Amino acid sequence: MDRTTDRASHAGARAVWVAVLLVVLAGPAAVYLSTSAPAGLWKQLSSVTGLVALSGLVCTAALPSRLRGLTRAFGIETVVGLHRQLGILCAVLIAAHLAAVVAANPAQVALLMVPTAPARARAAVGASVALALLLVLALERRRIKARYEVWRWLHLFLAVLVLGGSALHVLWLKQMVTDAVMGPILAGLGLLVVAVFVMRWWGRSVLDRGGEFVIQHVRAENPTVTTMVLAPRERAEGLRFSPGQFAWVRLQRSAVEEHPFTIASSAHDPLHTEFTIRGSGDFASSVRDLRPGESVWVDGPYGSFTCDAVPTEGLVLIAAGVGITPMMSMLRTAADRGDQRPHRLVYVARDTGDLLFRDELAMLRRYLDLEVTEVLRRPSASWTGATGEIDVALLQTVLATVDIAQRLDYFLCGPPSMVDDVLGALTAMGVPDDHIHTEQFDMA
Fold first, then answer.
1. What is the mean pLDDT of residues 363-370?
2. φ, ψ for residue 233 (rounded to 5)?
3. Residue 81 and residue 72: Cα distance in Å, rounded?
4. Contact, 230 vs 274, CB < 8 A?
5. DSSP string spanning 281-314?
6. Over 90: is that where the pLDDT of 25 sits?
7. Which parts of 32-157 are beta strand (E)?
8. Which of 157, 198, 248, 224 shows the shortest CA–CA distance to 443?
């Protein structure tokens, strides 16, 4: 498949996913409006806002369920961003639903009195409170200093409360569920949520026998960064991916604890898979303690952050810290493929101890049209290279040896603050948005 055909297929996949999302989100309310008997404005509005909120919760739950086609079509950042936006929309719709219920009959404000309210109202209040807590947890994640595992399980627990409370509210309300048209639609939404959770938490971790890999060896890159090298245990084809994609890694077959990591190895050899991991927590410590022959489980690949998806004549790779991992996959793959396009790498680190893969990058320059610019945030007195921020002046220096009349694509990976700064510099340079591809370490 050539680049033009691939882009057309990519656009077609996006259109299909958008259509599916719109049908699930707006379809039930549209059917209700076209089949229900005439009612007062506030009664009708309360039903429509409640239906769209319920559909929105279903979409919000389904989006992060690791549908490979979805993440490939839009990228993980877009999917997670839409997940958050739909969560906020659901909260707004639920508030509007409550306001319309009270406006239709002011006496129904008593439904908010939880001790005396009927079960259907208590379920709705419980779901609403859980959703509010969930939004706070998601929007304030950077300020919450809890461990990732704690944050993740609390997020999931609240999501189950929201979905469970909403389902009970609809069932105990006994209105639409008994309707000949709306009843099957609501049942379909419920089955969709159940299917998503079953496949996400049971199907992939228990039924997927091809996800088991064996440790070949583990090496320390520096005191806080570890690389584990894997080979497939059962499936002979290994892990097939595009350079820059990521996968979820767990140390047990069941999906009790798992983490997303970019695949750092070359896509040219699917039987050899590497993950380079930074961290000092329990999971990172467990990775460092792994021994050859032990099993790990990999769910992937995911994501659209890959140079294989764009028709480019040259790549400018800009990374900070362990954001170098997708860039290493791209460079290693390019070397294996004999790629002659220009590659320019800008690598930001705190100090020289955080500059990973320096020897390998020097070696790769023998096989690629590659130049590496290292930038330190806290340079020593003896450092003679670039320092500080990645600004227009630095980028212009990097591009001095590239024909900027060519189509160049820019790949950015690192903390959100770094990505935002570089985006500003590229925008100031007039780089078109469709030539800039980002991945931030803020997706969970």
1. 95
2. -85, -40
3. 15
4. yes
5. SHHHHHHHT--TT-EEEEEEEE-S--GGGS--SE
6. yes
7. none
8. 248
For 444, residues 6+ apart whose C-beta sits below 8 A from its C-beta are: 80, 148, 151, 152, 260
pTM metric for this prediction: 0.77
Distance of CA 18 to the CA centre of its chain: 17
Specify the amino acid at residue 412: L
Residue matched to tokens 């656009």: 11
Give me the count of residues in the chain.
444
The four Cα atoms 247, 209, 206, 214 give a dihedral, to 10 degrees, of: -60
pLDDT digits (tens, 9 = 90+) for 135-177: 988 887 767 766 777 787 888 899 999 999 999 999 998 888 8
Long-range pairs of 141-150 with CB within 8 A, sequence gap ≥ 24: 142/442, 147/281, 148/259, 148/281, 148/444, 149/257, 149/282, 149/283
Cβ pair 134, 155 in contact under 8 A: yes
Q: 254-262: long-range contacts at Cβ-Cβ below 8 A with a sequence spacing of 24 or more?
A: 254/205, 254/206, 255/200, 255/201, 255/204, 255/205, 257/149, 257/283, 258/299, 259/148, 259/283, 260/302, 260/443, 260/444, 261/325, 262/325, 262/326, 262/329, 262/413, 262/439
Note the pLDDT of residue 215. Answer: 93
